[in-house]
Amino acid sequence: MPEPILELAGLTKVFPGGFKALDNVDLTINRGEIFALLGPNGAGKTTLIGAVCGLVRPTSGTIRAFGQDTKSDWRQARARIGLVPQELSTDMFEPVLHAVEYSRGLFGLAPDPARIEEILRSLSLWDKRNNRIMELSGGMKRRVLIAKAMAHEPDLLFLDEPTAGVDVELRKDMWHQIDAMRARGVTVILTTHYIEEAEEMADRVGIIRGGKILMVDQKDAMMARLGRTEAHVMLAQPLDTLPPAIAAFPVELKEGGRSLCYRGGDGTGKGREEVAELTKALIASGIDYVGIDVRESSLEDIFVSLLGDEEEQAA
Amino acid sequence: MSFNARSAWSIYRRELWRFLRTAFQSVLAPVLTTSLYILVFGSAIGNRMPDVGSVDYGAFIIPGLLMLTLLGETTSNSSFGIYMPRFTGTIYELLSAPVGVAETLAGFVGAAATKSLILAAIILLTARIFVPYDIAHPVFAFVFILLVAASFSLFGFILGIWADSFEKLGIIPMLILTPLTFLGGTFYSIADLPAPWNTVALANPIVYLVSGLRWTFYGSADVSIWVSLALTLAFLVACTAIIAYIFRTGWRLRN
Ligand SMILES: Nc1ncnc2c1ncn2[C@@H]1O[C@H](COP(=O)(O)OP(=O)(O)O)[C@@H](O)[C@H]1O
Ligand SMILES: [Mg+2]
């Protein structure tokens, strides 16, 4: 039974000047999950995080974290939330250990050198603990921000675009770190505009654009609902008609009967199984083929098709 | 209302650490400037100046010069303390922490006031090298310097939240505090001004600060020490109220 850790209801933010960055957002995050908030630049991701963490004052709506209202019980809520901001903003002259110890103290916790050491070690920062942050590489700087955000042992951690502008190697490393956080029982909400990242990391995905949540679902369910397997079977001999055993599959002939196109499945792997069945049926029916091309649609395709629908509606 | 002493202590310690990191600029520069004033106006020119009341001219100007440095340094130290995190974005951490106005003020303003006390002590010790002077009411002097340091730290904090550029940050200390301190009886007694200027000068709030500090040194002043104390306290309360209001509305801090 999923237990809500964060509940947004009717959350709206209109910036002074009238720009509506969040539009009536309803969203529930469950304990222990990794949730990816996926959306293009300017979608309102950072604003949403800011509203939960106390950086942005909501225009209307409610935010409940751990069952407590973040407006009236802000102290209790904030004590259990960590934030790794999008920008690498920290005092660059400060040594790593100093910065992380400060963060723990700022959140009102007693010093705990063993715990800080553990956090720094898990992020491979221990050897750099006496280095000034300015001396570290970009990837290490972000790790310092993660260590600072983890220093007060939050139950809910926000990572705002943790891998934006970071090379593939560092991205993989970050995913690894996020997995480690989940292992500790931390609920992670990350924002990204890389679909690959949401697909790789998240249990659930929310798609946001123009301040509106377009869709929220289990990643697998989203793939199942919108995912597709597409297969092209290059036939040895062109066909005019399909025998009934083949026509039972969701297929059609293309390229003047030279190619058999399959579109089906649901993103859970069912499509690939069906393609395997199809090839057996082709052989059983005595239809020869010279090549097969199978492709699973990604979250990217889903994203594009969703946004496409939106635009059509708007037009 | 709750107060998290650990949070406040963390902010305080870190601010002092930053101060000490840049101790060279933050201590040496003001001490040098003030010493030059004391040397030139006190020792060199002061020898040719008549005593003010029963006080030697060189000694007479020390409280005013101390006040000049104290106001300027306290205000700019404190305003930078909160302006820089806003400017660089590091303020996100403070704003997302379970920390309210009380902890923030105790940390930032406490640290700024501490820096000012350290600075004041160094200046007074340095001044002794050039000009002999005694402090008639050391306890009063300490309390008064503490009050001024605290209230102008609060004032600087407001300035640092209000300012949206480095120019604005510098403008108040330079264009308002320094001239008002010069005109506020640092180099002369208000009573020696010709009418109506001796009355007009009383509209300058800095007069009460210089006069108050001078009383704690030499036991005589242009206005009563109690008036000086009361006005400083009132300023402190007003600044605190403004900051409480700023935090309640999130003005310039939270979008
Ligand atoms: N302080 C602000 N004042 C006015 N508009 C803002 C402010 N902050 C963000 N916005 C606008 O709100 C929209 C959402 O921004 P943001 O939440 O940062 O998007 P994302 O993080 O998804 O890229 C953008 O169009 C941005 O220009
Ligand atoms: Mg953003």
Automatic annotation (TrEMBL), chain A:
<dbReference type="InterPro" id="IPR027417">
    <property type="entry name" value="P-loop_NTPase"/>
</dbReference>
<feature type="domain" description="ABC transporter">
    <location>
        <begin position="6"/>
        <end position="235"/>
    </location>
</feature>
<dbReference type="Pfam" id="PF00005">
    <property type="entry name" value="ABC_tran"/>
</dbReference>
<keyword id="KW-0547">Nucleotide-binding</keyword>
<dbReference type="InterPro" id="IPR050763">
    <property type="entry name" value="ABC_transporter_ATP-binding"/>
</dbReference>
<dbReference type="InterPro" id="IPR003439">
    <property type="entry name" value="ABC_transporter-like_ATP-bd"/>
</dbReference>
<protein>
    <submittedName>
        <fullName>ABC transporter ATP-binding protein</fullName>
    </submittedName>
</protein>
<dbReference type="GO" id="GO:0005524">
    <property type="term" value="F:ATP binding"/>
</dbReference>
<dbReference type="InterPro" id="IPR017871">
    <property type="entry name" value="ABC_transporter-like_CS"/>
</dbReference>
<dbReference type="InterPro" id="IPR003593">
    <property type="entry name" value="AAA+_ATPase"/>
</dbReference>
<keyword id="KW-0067">ATP-binding</keyword>
<keyword id="KW-0813">Transport</keyword>
Automatic annotation (TrEMBL), chain B:
<keyword id="KW-1133">Transmembrane helix</keyword>
<dbReference type="InterPro" id="IPR000412">
    <property type="entry name" value="ABC_2_transport"/>
</dbReference>
<feature type="transmembrane region" description="Helical">
    <location>
        <begin position="139"/>
        <end position="163"/>
    </location>
</feature>
<feature type="transmembrane region" description="Helical">
    <location>
        <begin position="23"/>
        <end position="45"/>
    </location>
</feature>
<keyword id="KW-0472">Membrane</keyword>
<keyword id="KW-0812">Transmembrane</keyword>
<keyword id="KW-1003">Cell membrane</keyword>
<keyword id="KW-0813">Transport</keyword>
<dbReference type="InterPro" id="IPR047817">
    <property type="entry name" value="ABC2_TM_bact-type"/>
</dbReference>
<feature type="domain" description="ABC transmembrane type-2">
    <location>
        <begin position="21"/>
        <end position="250"/>
    </location>
</feature>
<feature type="transmembrane region" description="Helical">
    <location>
        <begin position="104"/>
        <end position="127"/>
    </location>
</feature>
<dbReference type="InterPro" id="IPR052522">
    <property type="entry name" value="ABC-2_transport_permease"/>
</dbReference>
<comment type="similarity">
    <text>Belongs to the ABC-2 integral membrane protein family.</text>
</comment>
<feature type="transmembrane region" description="Helical">
    <location>
        <begin position="57"/>
        <end position="84"/>
    </location>
</feature>
<feature type="transmembrane region" description="Helical">
    <location>
        <begin position="223"/>
        <end position="247"/>
    </location>
</feature>
<protein>
    <recommendedName>
        <fullName>Transport permease protein</fullName>
    </recommendedName>
</protein>
<dbReference type="InterPro" id="IPR013525">
    <property type="entry name" value="ABC2_TM"/>
</dbReference>
<feature type="transmembrane region" description="Helical">
    <location>
        <begin position="169"/>
        <end position="190"/>
    </location>
</feature>
<dbReference type="Pfam" id="PF01061">
    <property type="entry name" value="ABC2_membrane"/>
</dbReference>
